[in-house]
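Subject: Transmembrane protein (PGPGW)

B.,
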Amino acid sequence: MSAAEEAKEAGSERAKRPHVSIGGKRMPMPRSRLARIVSGVALVLLGIVGFLPVVGFWMIPLGLVVLSYDVPAVRRLRRRMEVWWHRRRRKDGRRPDAR
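Prediction pasted inline below.
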């Protein structure tokens, strides 16, 4: 197998790997569902004590984004927040389907 074919295969494998996109940056997540859930819950729980040094309240939304990959209820909540945010950011305040 040539180097180009190996690079293409590695790229396609990387594309299949679970990831989170925040601000246009792609961040890989663990492949194991259990590891993703544990890390998401850990981020949320540590974010709750965000007043302590090293941890912060920024960990709560990050944990929810990680959990939204596997937990449908969190995914729906995240999607609702995305829709709300994009509607809020529209300059004219109209819905896209409104005339």
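The first helix runs from residue 3 to 16.

T.
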